[in-house]
Amino acid sequence: MSQRLSKAEDTLVDAGERELVVGGDRPLRISAGHRLLHHDGKCSRPHGHNYEITVRVTGELTDEGWVVDKGEITDVVDEWDHRFLLEAGDPLVEAFDASGDGDAVVVLDHPPTAEVMATILEQRLADLLPETVSDVVVTVRETSELCIR
To answer: Residue 97, SS3?
Structure first.
């Protein structure tokens, strides 16, 4: 026999804010290339990383009963998977276009560092997710030695 909770117990309005963590124990993984155009070290050369990304979203429950649909988060992160992240003005942007691989490039207004990646992903998600979301925090781990929150 099924049990129906009373209306007071059934409401999502009183649930308060919750935190959804996508990629906590098993981070979202993307492979992407980049280079730091104005850097004097080895990072000025084109290279790539297997990034690990974790997204924390705080907000009230929607009518669907969740903070956000996990798929909305993974869709945004996946847009950078197997792409080359370049800063606007980098001559490699034109080289990719000339080679027919222009669709493999994501052009950023700032150097494609892990810090910039985390900031841009946070902003893109904040703009995309419902108004019930109050905070988005993205962690990008470029290597086992470098983690940006």
So the answer is: helix
Specify the DSSP element, H or E, that contains 85. strand 83-87
Residues 27/118, Cβ–Cβ less than 8 Å: no
Q: C-alpha distances in angstroms, 135 versus 3, 20, 103?
A: 35, 10, 31
Per residue in 82-141, pLDDT tens?
Answer: 999 999 999 999 999 999 999 999 999 999 999 999 999 999 999 999 999 999 999 999
- Residues forming the active site: 43, 82, 142
Which ranges of 1-149 does DSSP label H, i.e. alpha helix?
A: 7-10, 70-78, 91-99, 114-128
Tell me phi and psi for residue 22, to 5 degrees: -110, 120
- Rounded CA-CA distance 110/98 in Å is 22
Contact 86, 34 (CB under 8 A): yes
| pTM, entire model | 0.87
* Cα–Cα distance for residue pair 81/6, rounded to 1 Å: 46
DSSP three-state, residue 58? strand
* Distance of alpha carbon 128 from alpha carbon 113, whole angstroms: 22
